[in-house]
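Make up an example, fold above all:
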Amino acid sequence: MPNTDLKKEQPVPVVWIIWFAILQGALVIQWVIGEGIPEGENAAESMDAWLWLIVFIPIILAIAIRWLIIPKLDKLEAKMTAMIAGLALAEAPIMLSLFLMLPDYPQNQIAVLMVGVVAIFQFAPFYAKRNAGGVSRSERSDKTGL
C-alpha cells in the first residue's frame, strides 16, 4: 500500500523548479529578445517618469506579495499560487523595458534587469517547507519508523 503522507510532500521540489525556470527565463528573455546586455550610454534627454512608473509598479506589487501575503499563507498550494503571481510581476519589468525603453536607454535597461532579477531572487522558496500543508517530519517518522 503506497504511503500517502509522502505524496503530500511532492510539491516542494516543484516549487524550486518553477522558481529556477522563471529566473532562467528572465535571463533568456534578455539575451534572446534584447540581444544580450545592452551597451552604450543613455540618450541625452531623460526618460519620462510615466515609463519608470510602468516598469516599477509590478516590482512593488511583487515585493508586497512576497513579504506581506506569502508569510500569512499556511498551505503550500496557496504559497505556490502567490509565488507564481509574484514571479510574473517581478519578471514583467524586464519585458516592459525591452519594448518600451527601446535602445535609447541601455543603462536604464540594465538597471531594470538587475532589479527584476533581485525581485525574482526574493521569491526563492525557502518558505516552502515540507510540513506546510502536509505532514511534519516528526509525524512522518512516527508513522514510517524512519
Notes: The chain is about 65% helix and 0% strand. Residues 4-38+47-128 form one domain.
